[in-house]
Design a protein that fits this description.
Blueprint: H1 2-36, E1 41-47, E2 49-58, E3 61-68, E4 73-76, H2 83-86, H3 106-135, E5 137-138, E6 145-148, H4 153-157, E7 164-168, E8 171-172, H5 176-184, E9 191-197, E10 200-206, E11 209-212, E12 218-221, E13 224-226, E14 235-238, H6 243-247, E15 254-258, E16 261-262, H7 266-275, E17 281-287, E18 290-296, E19 299-300, E20 306-307, E21 310-312, E22 319-320, H8 324-350, H9 364-378, H10 380-397, H11 406-420, H12 428-458
């Protein structure tokens, strides 16, 4: 019973909360800007499109749940461009012309359209800002190699403990965070690096290997880490039907020693397991404050890799106190890094260097799976990381010039402005057709990403 409850909590409730917050903060942006300009809001569907199935009225606005579970919407009096998607309402009271959306100047309509993406960006910035200001900013490790796993990509390239990375894949004087990002998005691609060793500079080429993380996602890794000192080693995701699962290892266990050797961090734990994989491996762990000894033997798994079958929870870096300015800078930087990383991945897809399936682009199934597994493995940190990423993606995606999206409606405003120069207007029929065309495009995109979501689940 407990496992069923956990599955429902992580794989249904958590994703619904994540999507609900991201979508409704978007619609709230439209709602609040319209209210600020005195426009009358006819309906606010905080779940679903199409016909109303339940709701309540406050003032002039009907707050509702709608029949088609695809997002949410805010309907303004006088704006019938989305009537086919938002459902028809019975004719009501006469609305003063001053409160009609359609009769407002285009600059006000533009700000209403921008309100949704703006609020998504505000949320994406607010989460890392608040986290940094309350908890502190993770210290940025210097680009000095502290650990190199034997036979890993870094070792094969010639990297050694103590090497300082002075250039990596064209980035001069990188932080270790820069190195991590370049490695993660360039699996199985040779990357040039310049390192400094004993006062001498050397040019190397390292090829990150492809490693599965969670929710069917893959990243690159070079099996090298900076020296962060002693950090707790906490078990994260455990793959079913693997030696780790069969030995009784559980998520949240703290690994203290491997074959009697005390571990300092996750990297060293991997190294000890690799070194002793020819024989049964003894894991000394702590679970709820009690010492436990488990034994497991490395074997080849279904994906062809030889391992015990578990991952590690992310270990937080040491935190430095933040000011309002440094917290804001951290929030801005982390979001820019996300945008650049996504842009790099999409660039590889369009260049034919990466398949769409391996791009990490996900639809509803992928979002549900990623939200669930990130929260299950990393707890509240994972929840906020996923919420930040989805809110940022939703805000930027809605700015694309696709009919039905905010960017498409902004483009229509631009077309209307140009037509007005010649004394022409865009008819309501034309606007509805544009929106229905946009719906078809969005549904096609939805079907495509769902196909890739399913292929990730069944193709591994």
């Amino acid at each position: 019973m407990e496992s069923v409850i956990n599955i429902g909590f992580y794989y249904i409730l958590i994703p619904l909360i994540v999507l609900g917050i991201a979508v409704n903060i978007h619609e709230f942006g439209h709602f609040i800007i319209a209210k600020m300009f005195g426009m009358r809001v006819e309906a606010y569907s905080f779940f679903g499109l199409g016909p109303r199935i339940w709701g309540f009225r406050r003032g002039h606005t009907d707050y509702r749940i709608s029949a088609i579970p695809l997002g949410a919407y805010v309907k303004l009096y006088g704006d019938e461009s989305n009537a086919g998607l938002e459902g028809k309402d019975e004719a009501g009271e006469q609305v003063p012309a001053s409160e009609l959306y359609e009769l407002r100047p285009r600059w006000q309509k533009l700000l209403v359209m921008l309100g949704g993406p703006f609020m998504n960006l505000v949320l994406a910035l607010s989460i890392p800002f608040a986290t940094a200001y309350v908890q502190g900013i993770p210290s940025m490790p210097a680009p000095i190699v502290g650990k190199v796993l034997a036979d890993g990509p870094a070792a094969q390239a010639g990297l050694q403990v103590g090497d300082r990375i002075v250039s990596f894949n064209g980035i001069e004087d990188p932080t270790w965070r820069n190195v991590d990002i370049e490695v993660s998005v360039n699996a199985e691609r040779p990357l040039p690096a310049v390192i400094e060793r004993n006062g001498q500079r050397m040019t190397l080429q390292v090829t990150p290997r492809r490693e599965k993380i969670f929710a069917g996602q893959y990243v690159g890794t070079i099996d090298a880490d900076p020296d962060l000192g002693a950090l707790p080693v906490i078990v994260g995701d455990i793959t079913p039907n693997t030696p780790a699962a069969e030995a009784g290892l559980q998520s949240g266990d703290r690994i203290v020693a491997v074959n009697g050797e005390t571990v300092r961090d996750a990297s060293q734990t991997k190294e000890f397991i690799e070194k002793g994989k020819a024989a049964p491996i003894n894991l000394s762990i702590e679970r709820e404050g009690k010492p436990i000894s488990l034994t497991a033997t490395v074997r080849k798994l279904d994906d062809g890799t030889e391992r015990l079958g578990f991952g590690f929870k992310r270990t937080n870096l040491p935190l430095e106190p933040a000011t309002l300015t440094s917290a804001a800078s951290y929030a801005f930087t982390t979001n820019i890094e996300t945008i650049k990383t996504t842009g790099s991945i999409l660039g590889q897809v369009f260049a034919g260097n990466r398949s769409v399936k391996d791009s990490g682009i996900g639809g509803p199934i992928g979002i549900f799976q990623q939200s669930a597994e990130a929260t299950r493995i990393m707890g509240i940190d994972g929840f906020f990381i996923i919420l930040t990423g989805i809110s940022l993606s939703l805000g930027l995606f809605n700015l694309l010039p696709i009919p039905m999206l905010d960017g498409g409606q902004i483009a229509v405003l631009g077309v209307e402005k140009v037509m007005s120069w010649f004394g022409r207007t865009l008819s309501m029929v034309a606007k509805e057709r544009i929106q229905l065309t946009g719906l078809a495009i969005v549904l096609l995109l939805m079907v495509t990403v769902i196909f890739f979501d399913v292929s990730r689940l069944v193709g591994k």
